[in-house]
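Deliverable D2.4 — example input (structure tokens):
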């Protein structure tokens, strides 16, 4: 992909004796769109604040472009932050808001004027110079907050749930805008969200966090299709996670039936967790299925039908464009490539996580 721009090395952080981040290691490539994704309280904002210099780690280092910046003040770092609440100055115009940081740096009036124009064009709000922030919609205010950050020409933009306060439609528009903006600016974005769809839509690289640990990192496709554990699988989307037995390489017993798969190296007759996405279960005639079951619930979801299928005392979630009415006896088939095998959690922490799944 590219070279490392920011590296977090062995970062530890505790508040009042409670560990929040425990030996966190993370590398962020230059010019990538990286998202920290995880449930509330998992340490996303803390991680971002450590990168931004607003918070000091108890242990570990923050490396920026090869240099240790762990002790460097926020304003000396080549990055800018956009927060969830736009924090615009309401007594100033849009232009004055954007100019604020540049005036502190004693830039010339002409330079500032050009920058304001450039930034407003980038965020699609040309001509808004003299408006007051209060006269703008939430989405427009957030764009101004972004414009204010980018006129400083940071190498990295840190964004902490910047779309959290917006309604769904506006959020989707802004997701697209942010992606475009990142391409146009050619800088690194580090984005924090607890919304998995947002993360999947925008990112080049997703870092899934839980309880201060990185659970998995990778491309959106990898995270979605090849979750490494039950927490990631469950957090990233509706999934069927079934405790099963790996009989040998490429053969797994799920709910008493043998399924071919493509995974190897899990050992023989070993317990594993299997993830099957709802859209990857194929409902066929009973005699053609590897397992049989009965449809117990059906909901129309617009693009597809969502069905519960009971088999061997388990409910499986199935998404399909083909309708099978409640009460229908069905066969269940899964393509070997769509069976994802994961190790059964070992540590107590992981066990606790999988119990909540
Ligand atoms: N200044 C602080 N003093 C004490 N505890 C803190 C402080 N900042 C954060 N914490 C705690 O650290 C944990 C992680 O907080 P953090 O803000 O990093 O979570 P988050 O992943 O950003 O969550 P959210 O999605 O809700 O914003 C939480 O339990 C929080 O209460
Ligand atoms: Mg947060």
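Example output (designed residues):
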């Amino acid at each position: 992909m590219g070279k490392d721009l920011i590296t977090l090395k062995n970062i530890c952080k505790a508040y009042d004796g409670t560990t929040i981040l425990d030996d966190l290691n993370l590398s962020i490539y230059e010019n990538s769109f990286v998202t920290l994704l995880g449930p509330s309280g998992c340490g996303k904002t803390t991680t971002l604040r450590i990168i931004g210099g607003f918070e000091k780690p108890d242990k570990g280092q923050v490396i920026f472009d090869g240099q240790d910046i762990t002790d460097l003040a926020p304003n000396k770092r080549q990055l800018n932050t956009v927060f969830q609440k736009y924090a615009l100055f309401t007594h100033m115009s849009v232009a004055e808001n954007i100019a604020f940081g540049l005036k502190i740096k004693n830039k010339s009036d002409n330079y500032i004027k050009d920058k304001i124009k450039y930034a407003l064009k980038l965020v699609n709000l040309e001509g808004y110079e003299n408006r007051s922030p209060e006269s703008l919609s939430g989405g427009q205010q957030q764009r101004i907050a972004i414009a204010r950050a980018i006129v400083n020409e940071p190498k990295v933009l840190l964004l902490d749930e910047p779309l959290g306060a917006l309604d769904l439609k506006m959020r989707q528009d802004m997701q697209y805008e942010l992606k475009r903006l990142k391409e146009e600016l050619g800088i690194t974005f580090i984005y924090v969200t607890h919304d998995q769809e947002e993360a999947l839509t925008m990112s080049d690289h997703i870092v899934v966090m839980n309880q201060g640990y990185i659970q998995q990192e990778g491309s959106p496709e990898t995270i979605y299709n090849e979750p490494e554990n039950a927490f990631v699988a469950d957090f990233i989307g509706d999934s069927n996670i079934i405790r099963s037995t790996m009989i040998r390489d490429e053969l797994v017993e799920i709910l008493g039936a043998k399924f071919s798969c493509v995974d190897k190296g899990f050992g023989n007759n070993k317990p594993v967790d299997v993830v099957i996405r709802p859209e990857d279960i194929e409902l066929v005639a009973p005699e053609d299925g590897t397992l049989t079951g009965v449809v117990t619930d059906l909901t129309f979801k617009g693009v597809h039908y969502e069905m519960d299928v009971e088999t061997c005392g388990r409910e499986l979630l199935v998404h399909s464009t083909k309708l099978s009415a409640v009460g229908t006896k069905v066969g269940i088939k899964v393509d070997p490539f769509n069976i994802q095998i994961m190790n059964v959690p070992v540590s107590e922490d992981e066990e606790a996580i999988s119990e909540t799944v």
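Residues 168-185 form the longest helix (18 residues).
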